[in-house]
């Protein structure tokens, strides 16, 4: 898979050359305009005439082969500066026929760089042709395609290379060794398939549409944690390392006020880095002979102290607020090697089920370690009291006798006496708990049914969707709970009770936004925090409660880290690691588009337009949805980067059907026992209304795509309509019964999708609403994609639909992604997976089958 190393498309310069040719003679397109920079002279190394260990001497061609310039990072525009050995060299526009083309002032050997760009609107094959006198190398998108190491003075030597060009903008870079003999070269591109005069466009601008590499590559900020006083932050980063499938993770400590990076932990052996409750100190762990040691590092005096060592099976740790103790957990896998065994309950088939975790206490002053919990059931730390005297911990276990088949116990332990009190026992819909600032109450984060009907607001719906996150304040003396979000429609996913101002700060899905809110416990009112981004990743409060930081992104803006001033309610940027990566990317317009059903319900959606959109043209359309219990958020990138689909020349319509969280409990409860009947009709109705309302949308070229529950929806839709010209299902469910029984989360997810319904008591849902049992109704070409080791939605869900459609003589394709689970995470496979989607839609929505045929040629098997 070729890597696009150049960012491209904002405003095409006036120097853009539109090239045309006639199909009859397949005329080559000569490149006439370049950006050029001439370097100063370069020297042969000392002892160049001496043979090395291989018996070779250093030749002129070796000067050319040296990697003087970072080829895959060059994306210059005219008048940009190239820094070269302390000098500033300017990229200038020059014609290939001009006198100053490759004219160097040096009397000695020197290197010249020439760059130009060209765009293709569709996948195509072409030939790259070079007529060269000087020694040179030619790169396309950072990959060397042609090399010429024999200097000629009279007749130019012709060299060529076959190219496979994906849609988008490409960069040609030529490195020329100037020797004052003859520096001329000519370069042209010759398309090999049928093509139109505007199929290839040349430019001197590095601006481009979004590509899959712009989505995947570059440094990304993942998390932020503030120091106790909020003046420093630990930032967590990740970057891909193409062309390999490896990635790099590291942390940096940055000063908030100045932006200065004080420390970086790139390539270090440290893990579990976190701030101490007070002072500018961090703790971290190191592994020695499979055992773990815990250290403290003090920034003020630069000292490192080992707190404890030789901890076996170490898992994680937390500081008590007074900084005098650490509560840590150990985790041990009790599974055994086996050739045949009895499954001890439904969860026992899950590979992690026999892993158990228990809690320990480390006293900092003495180094004494004491075990806090024991038994057969995992105990998980929930919180530590503000006075450091108590902890909250929980246990959960399956119970197949009672819906929802899982029960939770919550306990409070005195860390001095180990006295343990039960806060609740056998709770059917458990949650997470944290102490109030004074320790007298608990903030409970759970679903609507955590305290029975107390927290439910589902109207006439029979069952709540307990993926819809709610908050409760639980009084430890009275054991009574108050549902504080019962009239708050956004679905809570993270909450912190601030000890400074006593407010509760929370992150919540508000329809397709993820916002930050504050809840004033006295006035009992919610307020929206003013931030510029659409989707918050995570947020953190400093230990003193006076500072906040968060990560966030928007539709056309990657994740950044921000500091939030709680007094002025304003944000300031901490870091923007993707700035350079997308510097030259042009995004199309995005706007909301909603429709109202006959029953008065509004179904929200949004539209992604291609860059350089022209409303007078007709565009193919891709309809996207999840239709499960989570809305498709307004984030950048992601596994289905809709901006990228638009960049490929499609209008993309995304809608949020009934059943999603973030719209209120009654709306999300519609997910229960529906399995696509309501949502399928909404997708069909929304698509028809969208096409009718937008003249530029070509109703004959509409595709649809969804994954997981959305993959199920893709299959189900084709049994109920023929409005789509092509459909793609990734990891989709074809038979609700087999998914319920086989998927790792099948029956547990069904608690919120088909609560109290089973194959034996609701055949209509499990059979009539399963796409497999309606496969004969499908007339739309369908692509099934699936990870070969998917444990959430097993591979068989696609296999059985593929077999059914093949036997029925339907147009169906099936692509497996080797050794990938429910999500395609491997770097190179992710690119191939995306290209599979693009190529399939190109074949069916653009009548351009060459890309698909190249990826998956028919074989005579």
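^ Assign residues to that structure.
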């Amino acid at each position: 898979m070729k890597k696009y190393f150049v960012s491209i498309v904002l405003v095409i310069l006036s120097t853009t050359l539109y090239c045309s040719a006639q199909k009859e003679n397949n005329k080559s397109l000569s490149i006439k305009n370049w950006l050029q920079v001439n370097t100063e002279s370069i020297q042969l190394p000392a002892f160049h005439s001496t043979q090395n260990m291989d018996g070779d001497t250093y030749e002129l061609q070796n000067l050319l082969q040296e990697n003087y310039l970072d080829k895959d990072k060059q994306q210059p525009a005219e008048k940009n500066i190239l820094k070269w050995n302390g000098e500033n060299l300017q990229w200038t526009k020059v014609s290939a026929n001009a006198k100053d083309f490759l004219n160097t002032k040096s009397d000695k050997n020197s290197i010249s760089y020439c760059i130009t760009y060209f765009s293709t609107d569709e996948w195509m094959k072409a030939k790259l042709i070079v007529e060269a006198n000087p020694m040179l190398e030619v790169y396309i998108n950072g990959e060397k395609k042609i090399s010429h190491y024999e200097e000629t003075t009279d007749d130019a030597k012709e060299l060529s290379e076959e190219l496979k060009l994906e849609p988008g903008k490409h960069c040609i870079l030529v490195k020329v060794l100037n020797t004052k003999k003859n520096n001329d070269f000519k370069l042209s591109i010759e398309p090999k398939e049928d093509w139109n005069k505007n199929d290839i466009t040349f430019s001197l601008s590095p601006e481009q549409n979004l590509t899959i590499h712009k989505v995947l590559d570059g440094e990304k900020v993942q998390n932020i944690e503030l120091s106790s006083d909020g003046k420093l932050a630990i930032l967590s980063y990740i970057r891909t390392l193409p062309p390999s499938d490896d990635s790099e993770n590291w942390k940096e400590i940055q000063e908030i006020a100045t932006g200065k990076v004080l420390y970086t932990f790139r390539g270090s052996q440290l893990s579990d880095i976190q701030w101490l409750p007070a002072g500018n100190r961090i703790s971290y762990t190191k592994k020695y002979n499979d055992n773990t040691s815990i250290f403290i590092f003090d920034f003020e005096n630069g000292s490192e102290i080992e707190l404890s060592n030789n901890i076996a099976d170490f898992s994680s740790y937390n500081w008590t607020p007074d900084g005098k103790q650490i509560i840590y957990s150990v985790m041990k896998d009790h599974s055994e090697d086996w050739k045949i065994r009895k499954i001890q309950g439904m969860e026992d088939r899950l590979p992690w089920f026999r892993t158990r975790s228990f809690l320990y206490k480390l006293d900092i002053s003495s180094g004494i370690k004491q075990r806090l919990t024991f038994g057969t059931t995992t105990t998980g730390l929930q919180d530590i009291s503000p006075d450091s005297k108590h902890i909250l911990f929980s246990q959960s276990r399956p119970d197949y006798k009672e819906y929802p088949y899982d029960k939770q116990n919550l306990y409070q332990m005195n860390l001095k006496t180990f006295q343990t009190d039960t806060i609740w026992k056998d709770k059917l819909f458990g949650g997470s708990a944290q102490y109030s600032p004074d320790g007298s109450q608990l903030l409970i984060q759970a679903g609507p049914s955590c305290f029975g009907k107390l927290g439910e607001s589902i109207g006439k719906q029979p069952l709540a969707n307990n993926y819809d996150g709610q908050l409760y304040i639980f009084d430890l003396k009275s054991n009574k709970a108050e549902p504080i979000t019962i009239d708050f429609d956004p679905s809570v996913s993270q909450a912190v009770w601030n000890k400074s101002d006593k407010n509760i700060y929370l992150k919540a899905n508000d329809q397709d936004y993820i916002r930050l809110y504050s809840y004033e416990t006295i006035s009992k009112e919610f307020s929206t925090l003013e931030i510029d981004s659409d989707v918050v990743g995570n947020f953190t409060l400093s230990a003193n409660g006076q500072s906040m930081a968060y990560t966030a992104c928007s539709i056309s803006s990657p994740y950044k880290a921000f500091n939030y001033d709680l007094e002025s309610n304003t944000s300031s940027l901490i870091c923007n690691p993707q700035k350079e990566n997308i510097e030259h990317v042009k995004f199309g317009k995005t706007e909301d588009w909603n429709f109202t059903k006959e029953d008065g319900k509004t179904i929200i959606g949004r539209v992604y337009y291609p860059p350089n959109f022209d409303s007078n043209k007709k565009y193919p359309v891709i309809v996207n949805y999840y239709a499960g219990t989570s809305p498709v958020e307004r984030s950048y990138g992601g596994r289905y980067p809709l901006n990228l689909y638009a960049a490929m020349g499609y209008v993309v319509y995304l809608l949020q059907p009934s059943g999603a969280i973030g719209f209120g409990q009654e709306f999300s409860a519609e997910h229960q026992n529906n399995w696509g009947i309501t949502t399928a009709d909404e997708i069909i109705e929304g698509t028809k209304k969208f096409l009718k309302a937008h003249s530029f949308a070509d109703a004959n070229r509409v595709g649809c795509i969804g994954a997981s529950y959305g993959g199920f929806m893709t299959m189900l839709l084709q049994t109920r309509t023929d409005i789509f010209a092509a459909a793609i299902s990734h990891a989709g469910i074809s038979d609700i019964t087999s998914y319920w029984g086989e998927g790792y989360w099948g029956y547990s997810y069904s608690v919120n999708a088909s609560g109290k319904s089973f194959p034996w008591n609701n055949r209509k849902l499990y059979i009539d609403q399963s796409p497999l049992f309606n496969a004969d109704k499908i007339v739309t070409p369908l692509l099934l994609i699936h990870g070969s080791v998917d444990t959430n939605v097993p591979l068989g869900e696609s296999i059985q639909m593929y077999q059914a459609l093949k036997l029925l003589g339907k147009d169906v394709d099936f692509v497996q992604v080797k050794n990938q689970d429910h999500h395609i995470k491997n770097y190179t496979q992710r690119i191939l997976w995306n290209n599979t989607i693009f190529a399939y839609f190109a074949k069916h929505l653009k009548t351009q089958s060459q890309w698909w045929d190249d990826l998956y040629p028919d074989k005579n098997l």
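The domain at 17-208 is CATH 2.60.120.260 (Jelly Rolls).
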